[in-house]
Amino acid sequence: MRAFAAMLLAVSGMTLAACASTTAEAPLTVALGQQRAAAESDLHAHQYCRKSNDPPQRQEVYPRCDRPGTEWGDSWVAAVFEHDQLVELRRWERYADDAHAVERWNQLVGDRSKLTPPSEAAARALRERGLLQPGTRTVRAFQVDDRTIVGIYLLTPSEPENATVLEKISFLPDPSAPAQK
């Protein structure tokens, strides 16, 4: 009986770890424009947790939540808030092995494509707005809604992040807003 209980506990733990890992690897589905508390809750659902007890900042970093098991690389999210509303999100991923980085980029592009198809108009907007990351080897862009685009970047690692994969969610300028001078 004890052996059965121990086996059941082990299988439950593996299932829970697998679910957490899958959630963390899925494309970010955190909506821009929402309040900080809601954004932090959504990031937590993706396995990214705020570790600091410091007062909220304009830019916050959310490392991966504590979790069992090992991973091929590091991952963290950088969020930008204006007036306590989320305005930009970047998930940085760092892999020591280029083959794992390319595999992860392909996985993330494939998974994001299941949510919304890649968009040449979104890719053009990234280029025209100067949103390409330094060290971009390749990028795939997606239009989430009228004002939100997602870029999935495969990068040549460079300081300070030394990241190889970036998922960046950005607002497009509001077409009804007056032009900035």
Can you characterise this structure?
With 181 residues, the chain is α+β, with helices and mostly antiparallel strands. It has four helices and six strands, in the order ααβββααβββ. It has one domain (23-171). 34% of the residues lie in helices and 27% in strands. It has a six-stranded antiparallel beta sheet with strand order 1-2-3-6-5-4.
Concise structural overview:
The protein has 181 residues and is an alpha+beta fold. The chain has helices at residues 2-25, 36-45, 98-115, 120-128, and strands spanning 59-63, 73-82, 85-95, 136-143, 148-155, 165-171. A 6-stranded antiparallel β-sheet has the order 1-2-3-6-5-4.
Number of strands: 6
Mean of residue pLDDT values: 83
Number of helices: 4
| Shape by Cα distribution | globular
Give a quick set of tags describing it.
4 helices; 6 strands; six-stranded antiparallel beta sheet; 181 residues; alpha+beta
How do the helices and strands line up, and which of them pair or pack?
Blueprint: H1 2-25, H2 36-45, E1 59-63, E2 73-82, E3 85-95, H3 98-115, H4 120-128, E4 136-143, E5 148-155, E6 165-171
Antiparallel strand pairs: 1-2, 2-3, 3-6, 4-5, 5-6
